Amino acid sequence: MVAFQTTDWDSAYENGGNIADSAEIISQWPIDAAQFRKQTKGTLDVSYGPQERAKYDLFMPDETPKGLFVFVHGGYWQSTDKFMWSHYAKGAVEAGFAVLVPGYELCPNVTIDQITHMVAQAINQAAQNIAGPIILTGHSAGGHIVAELATTQTYLEKQIMARLTHIIPISGLFDLRPFLNTKLNEAMQLTDESAKTSSPALKSPLPHIRLTAWVGSNERSEFLRQNALIANIWHGLGIVTEAVEEPDKHHFNVIDGLLDKNSALLRTALA
Asked: Which of 18, 132, 223, 263 could be stapled to 219 by a disulfide with Cβ–Cβ 3.0 to 4.6 Å?
């Protein structure tokens, strides 16, 4: 029998301090994002609600879109902005999909549940003008959000929910109860009850969707555990799931597959 115990939950969920050159990697993102926006057809800062950050960017392929691909950024629900992440639409756009990158308000100004509701509003609005299947992906906290939207308690409108085909959370977080033991919760402001009600691993998935939970093999053990957890539980609830640990990838480069339409990540997502 193998015994497991985590005593330092802050370290368990700390990425930047445990990845070499993480500051350099992150500092490059807004540069690459700005360059992508200059080169790609799309509409920026479309308002979908009254909040300051309730805006989305929609990037378009040259041809009629095959469907809508959604990328939700991370930042532990309390940092970063959509303008840092635009370039991660590149691979899906080149594969012929319209790509939605929603912004959202951050904790502690709003709750995690309110953030999830905001992202759903952005998808509900953008999807009205894009036909075809809808594929959801998100990184870290964004992975949590897209998983939440794939449950039977989704905030997506019925006709939009019916178009969901594949959910690909990347380095996602699906059981939020461990965050009650972290400094991150100073902004997240989770309680015992809200940690449970905001955990997609404790909810039922929509019966018609497919889930691929994707994580880097070199990530913190908690991200590996959370990745396996959602695929295991939702498989037991009757949907097709897969848990992938991409070799030699960590938290800040596992999303690089979104840059290349021929990557393993995007080929899996769009299959």
From this structure: 223
